[in-house]
TrEMBL record:
InterPro entries: Urocanase-like (IPR023637), Urocanase_central_sf (IPR038364), Urocanase_Rossmann-like (IPR035085), Urocanase_sf (IPR036190). This is Urocanate hydratase. The keyword Lyase applies. PANTHER family: UROCANATE HYDRATASE. GO terms for biological process: L-histidine catabolic process. Residues 1-80 form the Urocanase Rossmann-like domain. It is an enzyme of class 4 (lyase). Pfam families: Urocanase. It comes from Vibrio parahaemolyticus. GO terms for molecular function: urocanate hydratase activity. Its EC number is 4.2.1.49. Keywords: Lyase.
Length: 80
């Protein structure tokens, strides 16, 4: 759709993309926001824009508890 120029799977990767870019760049950070927001505060970083793309309407496949990976959540859905 053109909304995201680059994707990153860690905060450090996202920050490196931003730092290395000569022009404004939008970076999609593919992580659990609950795990990253405290790190942003600790580093004194304020993003220009934040949007949550989680399926909040879908409690089974939407939000994950802090510290859970996608694979752990999938495993828990099968067990419980």
């Amino acid at each position: 759709t053109g909304y995201v120029d680059k994707k990153a799977t860690s905060l450090d990767e996202a920050l490196a993309i931003i730092k290395e870019s000569d022009t404004p760049v939008s970076v999609g950070l593919l992580v659990n926001a609950a795990d990253v927001f405290s790190e942003l505060v600790e580093r004194n970083i304020t993003p220009d824009v934040v949007t949550d793309q989680t399926s909040a309407h879908d409690p089974l496949n939407g939000y994950l508890p802090q510290g859970w990976s996608m694979s752990h959540a999938a495993e828990m859905r099968l067990q419980d």
